[in-house]
Amino acid sequence: MAAPLCLLLTRPRMVWLFALVVSGTAFLTSILLLQQVMVSGTIVYELGGWKAPWGIEYRIDQLSAFLLLIISAVSTVVLLAAHTSIQQEIPASRHRLFYVLYLLSLAGMLGIVATGDAFNVFVFLEISSLSAYALIALGKDRRALWAAYQYLIMGTIGATFILIGIGLMYQMTGTLNMHDLSVRLPAVEHTRTVFTAFAFIIVGVCLKLALFPLHLWLPNAYAYAPSIVTAFFAATATKVAIYLLIRFTFSIFGLSFSFTALPLQILFLVLGLLGVFVASTAAIYQTNVKHLFAYSSIAQVGYMIIGFSMTTATGLMATLLHLFNHALMKSALFLALGAVMYRIGSVQLSQFQGLGRQMPLTMAAIVIGGLSLIGVPLTVGFVSKWYLVLAVIENGWWPVAVLILLASLLAVVYVWRIVEVAYFKPPLAANESVTEAPLSFLVPIWILVVANLYFGIDTRLSIEVAQAAAQSLFGVSP
């Protein structure tokens, strides 16, 4: 409802404040929902009072409440810097349209997570995706159009696959309600139609979450989109897709079918490891820092998929923990890059020379975010890696634990490249007059950086919720 209302507001600052209030309200609501779900269990709301499966229901459990919190929190903090950032990167005539699209994309993501209806998942997926394509195309570099087009083609193929899978499930069960599907599917799970539906959904979702080798749309989409858009999507879009993967495999098809009927465990483990190593290696050779962190995002998705592939409560908990932690890391990093873009008009690595002295607070944020990516103690990245390695060792996969630690060394290399240029080289003559980013950037950047450090030390919230969500999906009472 709020998205089209942005068109009625004429002053840019009013539109921004309105969008910020809307996102902040969603954030407060998600905090209250999470508190309620942790105390009293799953909340079910029937739209129009029509009982499921005839009517559509919203179903909030620990997993969906956790995702709602991540999406709305990142959206609100990122929006704090939006008014300043888009002045440089988006023409003034399109500012209102930017907020309309941003709120639509936010609504779509929240809808995917909240709904208990499989067809509604597709509807909300299209709302968030279509607005995402348009948001990416708003980038001032002409390559943003090509990146949006690439994402449009790949995203449409992914969404179509998901829709075909949902259609085939409906054909076999006569229901679209997720809870009802989980009850009716076991009776027909050994039919070719259900196998086909499962395959279509898995491939479609993997396209959306940029799992190697279906990741080709992501680097350009992140690199050429406006900085605010990149900061929002890097922290939320792939996380929503991983939520869908977990929801379909654990809640709808069930663990026994998902990982025994098909060899998904070994497939996801191999693809996850390949994603980590290939994307981390590619990141080392990038000259555009947005490209560098985009490839890093593909590697981080690989880590989440490794945790998911273990089919243990600890492994799934490590994945959910990394969903939360990675959202904090990447939103901080891409927002800091937005501040650099605002000051020097570029995010090419060669332009970072001497910025450590000229923009000390912004570059310090990038360094702390980089340390979090590596997994240095006292950052959220360490917590994620610790639980992932713990889950791998619990499973007896010692070689995988060694590979995860080796992959962290690749992150050291690409983070060091930025540090070396920013702190150990003199400023460029063209950038001599560059000063620190304005407060409207520094405040949200440092909120996220402090969150990276705080949740790396006090892990009660993230671990408690991730553990409760993982155990409920495995049917274990906490």
Write a structural description:
The protein is mainly α. The protein has 2 domains: 1-262, no CATH class; 263-478, no CATH class. The chain is 76% helix and 2% strand. It is built from 21 helices and 2 strands. A two-stranded antiparallel sheet has the order 1-2. Helix 3 (62-80) runs antiparallel to helix 5 (95-114) and helix 15 crosses helix 21 (460-473). The model has no long low-confidence stretch (mean pLDDT 85).
Give the helix/strand layout.
Layout: H1 2-5, H2 12-40, E1 43-46, E2 57-60, H3 62-80, H4 82-89, H5 95-114, H6 118-137, H7 143-173, H8 178-184, H9 192-208, H10 218-224, H11 227-252, H12 255-261, H13 264-284, H14 289-309, H15 313-344, H16 355-358, H17 360-374, H18 380-394, H19 398-424, H20 439-457, H21 460-473
Antiparallel strand pairs: 1-2
Give structural attributes.
478 residues; 2 domains; 76% helix; 2% strand
What is this structure, in a nutshell?
With about 475 residues, the protein is mainly α. The chain is built from 21 helices and two strands.
β-strand number:
2
Task: Average the pLDDT over all residues and give the rounded result.
Answer: 85
Helix content: over 70%
> What percent strand?
under 5%
Stretches with pLDDT under 50, minimum 5 residues:
none
- Tally of domains: 2
State the end-to-end CA separation: 38 Å
Q: What is the N-to-C succession of helices and strands?
A: HHEEHHHHHHHHHHHHHHHHHHH
Count of alpha/pi helices: 21
Shape type: globular
Largest sheet: 2 strands, antiparallel
Which structural class best describes the helix and strand composition? Answer: mainly alpha
